[in-house]
Amino acid sequence: MKKYLCFVPLVVLFCFTIACQDRAAMTELRQFKAQNALETQNIELIRKLLGEISNRNAAVFNELYAPDYKYYFPSVTQTPFSREEEAAQVKAFFSAFPDLTNKIVDIFAVKDRVIVRVVVSGTHQAEFEGIPATGKKAS
Fold this sequence. Notes:
Elements: H1 2-54, H2 60-64, H3 83-96, E1 101-110, E2 113-123, E3 137-138
Antiparallel strand pairs: 1-2, 2-3
C-alpha cells in the first residue's frame, strides 16, 4: 500500500506537468495562428492594391492608405508624396502607358511587413515626365 501512496503523487505531478506544457503549446499555437492570419490579411491587401492599380482605379489609395500616408520616391523628389500625389503619379503612368500591368512574381509576409516583387510593364504611348512616346514596351 505504501508503494501506491508514493506512486500517486508522482502520477499527479506528471499529469500537472503535461497539462502545463499543453497549455503553453496551445498558447503558442494560438499566437502562431493569429500571426498567420495577420500576414495573410496583409498579403491580400497588397494583392488588392496592385490589382486595383492594374484596373486603373487610382481611388484605391484613399481606400487603403491612411490619411497621413507618405511615399518616399527619392529619384523623383526629395519631398514625400501624399496619397493624393501618389494617385496623381499613377494616373500619369496610366496616360503614358495605357496597357500598364502589375504582375506579382513573389509575395510573402513576415510579421507586419509584406515583401513583394512586381514586374510592371506597359507600352510607352504618350509623353511621360518630358519623355516623348516611343511606342516601345517597357518592363
